[in-house]
Amino acid sequence: MKLNTGLIALAAVDVVSFAGTQVADAATWHKGIPKSVKGYWKAHTGGKKIKSGYYYNNYVYTSFSGTTISTMLKAVTHQNGKNFPQFDSGSPFFYHVKYHYLGNHVYKFKGTYALGGGTGTMTVKVSKHKLLMNDNHQKTLLTKISHATYKKELYPLFK
Description:
By secondary structure, the chain is of the alpha+beta class. 16% of the residues lie in helices and 55% in strands. It has one domain. The chain contains two helices and ten strands. The N and C termini lie far apart (85 Å).
């Protein structure tokens, strides 16, 4: 009888320890934006000298916050020492964002497109101050900027 009681107790401990273990699901989608990606990012996406004293530069500003990824485009035309900024697409790029960590500082985002509806995905590789964004096979390298810099460079929109 003592032997049976010991076996039952051992079996109960085995069942409890087995039931208490959980396997992590590698395909888990998390709501929102991971901490390492949150914030404001800027990229210089091109520039061209058209003629003497006249050239332009293009910039992309991206904001990752909450469950939204927003993109702002800024084109600055320089003519005879004067700057003429133009802005476009101040609306969110993705709504209801979820992310999945792929490893090696790479995240996959999915969300609803702000314009036109539908869902889409993009991948992001992040390091301390750089972010490589790959959206529909178009890669953009962005640099981390502060909120103050973001507002300063887009100041005409925040007046």
